[in-house]
Structure formats: C-alpha cells, structure tokens
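Service request form, structural biology core

Requester: graduate student, group of Dr. S.
Request type: structure prediction, single chain
Budget code: on file
Notes: please return the result as structure tokens.

Sequence provided:
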Amino acid sequence: MRSLRIISSSVWDAVRNFREFLDCGSPLPLFHRTSGGAKAAEGCRSPRRRRAIHSLLIATASALSLPASILSAATFTENFSANPAANAWQIFGTNNLFTWDSANQNLRVTWDSSKPNNYFHRPLGTILTPDDDFSLSFDLTFEDYAIGVNPAKPGTFEAAIGFLNLDQATKTNFFRGAGTSSLGPLNIVEFDFFPAFDTFNPTIAQTIVGTNHSSLNWLYNHDKLLEMTPGETFIVTMNYSSATRTLTTTITNNGTQCGDPQTLILTAVIDFRVTTLSISSYSDAIQPLPAGSILAHGSVDNLILVTPPSPVENISGGFIGASWRVQFISRTNWLYTLEQSDNLTTWTNVSLATMGNGAILTLSDTTPPAAKSFYRVRANRL
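Core staff response, request fulfilled:
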C-alpha cells in the first residue's frame, strides 16, 4: 500500500515527505484540510503494518500537483552503495540473516531453513499479475551451502529470490515446502537454487504459484541441472511477458550463458498477485517426504527491477466549486474509488468505483463535509 504524506502545501516539502513515506511505509494518508488551512497529522507508524492484500491506497493533497516522474517507479535499482534501510528495504523475521556489507557494497544473506520464514523485502508500489510485463535481474554469489543440516530432513531445500505477496507470506500457515496443501504458499514468482542431493543433481528452478491451493496453480521448471559454484558470481535475469504469458530466466557467469534459458508458460487458469520483491529464507517445516533442509551463505547485489508504472500518477486534488475533486493518470485493469474520512479510521466511499482508462481520471465528492476532511484514492487491481 502506498499513501502520500504532506506536511505543507509547498511542492518541495511534498516531494521530501513523499520520500520519507517510502522509507517508513506508512499506509496512512496524513494530509487534511481544516477551516484554518493545512495541518500535519500524526507521524509514521509501524513499517510492518499492512492492510488488504489486493489494493493500494493513494492519498490526495489539496491544490497540489506532483510530477509523474516522482510518483512512478517503473525501474528500480539497488547496488547497496548506501544503507538499504534508507531505500525502503525492510526485514521480516530474524535480523541476523540479512546484513548490509558497507565495505563490499552488497547484501550478505544467510538462508537457514531451521528458522521461521525470513524475508529481506521491498514493496513494489503496485500489484503484479499475469497481465503485466516485468523483469528482475540480480547478482548472486554463494560462499557455501550445505543440505541435510537437519538429520531428520536429509534432502535438499531451496535458496530463493523473487516476488511474493507479503500479507500472505507472513502468515503463520505459509510453508514453502508444503506444496499444494492448505499450508502451502500462494502468490509467488521466484528463482530457486537446490544444491545436489543423493543421486539428484544441483537444480536451478523457476516457480510460479497462483492464488489458490491446487496443483493446477503450481508451475515450475526444474530441468536446469547446473551447479552454482561457491565463490563465483552468477547474473540471474527473469523476464515475464504478458503477451505470451511466459517467464524466461537466463543465467550468466563470467559473461557466458549457463545452459539454455528456462521458460514457464502460464496456463489460462493460473493467476497470481504479487506485491513485494523479496530475498527469502524459507522454513523447512511441513514438507512431504523426503524432507530437506539447507544452510547457505552468500551475497546479493545489483538488483534491477522493471515494473509497470504506479496505478496512480501525477495526482492533484482540490475544490472545484462546492465539490472536492481529484485527478490523476490511471491504469487499465484497475478500479478506483475516492474515499473520505474525518478521523483516519472510518472511511466512506464518496464516488462510484470507476475503471481506469490509461489516461486522466477524475473522481469527485459532490457533498464534502464542512469541517476537516481526509481523502484517499483506493486502487483495486482487477
């Protein structure tokens, strides 16, 4: 979820505070109007607070227009030259599995399946579905890895990087190894590496899991039987094309492509909704036999993420006559509703739900209250 925190009517103050919002991740729109003018509401709340799975919240500011270049984030890069916490990255779980290495300017990662699910994650600012084009590339270097570290789980287990739905992935009944059971994962699109096990070769895989627990909503490709040799850096590139509903993953090492590209073609029944970029250390609890476990150490660097633009861009709001009106550039496949509140707790729809058109969209409250009022735009992904 995304909201815009405005403290003054100055555009530069708005820009600064919008960037502060990206750091704190607050879902609350913190600008309101009163008869005495603009006032600031309470500050940033817990960055882990989340709301509905399939919607984003965008706040509006009175008589203020922000350039689209500020509100859209179609391309995101991270080279870890600065503390990633200042770039909206957060940790869910055990803090000591993810460490910023300021000297080497990368992220040190431990994949430890003996622990509960842990994520080093960043919000996408949108909701990706099979109808979107997107891509992700990153450098991955393992220092070491060992499987079967739990004698009761002697098989292999994965080290994962990709996309998930954070609301679901942080639930206590989300177990990556549980497959299509009711305790298995939903809404993931990810790269996986499984070290060699017994007679099984090391495996590089790509996995997509849809929105419900069914074998029809699981899709994976694990025929790339290649080692990711510790000490060597591999560049992983994942490209998803909505036109062909195909995920293609390529891997290079020292400028040479490692084997053929992997492809996954989504069937018509698969639908996913992912909201978060994540480096994921999954728990090895709840697995069918033969169960596996992993302890791996390595580093991740040079992430490049390309997504569609934000569902709301170039937003402005203010009074037109007696009505409060907000305008913004919308996107197709999204449904927009203007909401109003006098306390930031109870929200009321004050416009009809309106389909995005890929152009400027206008939503209005034709009977705004006379006293102070807060407004936000709810963007629901179809």
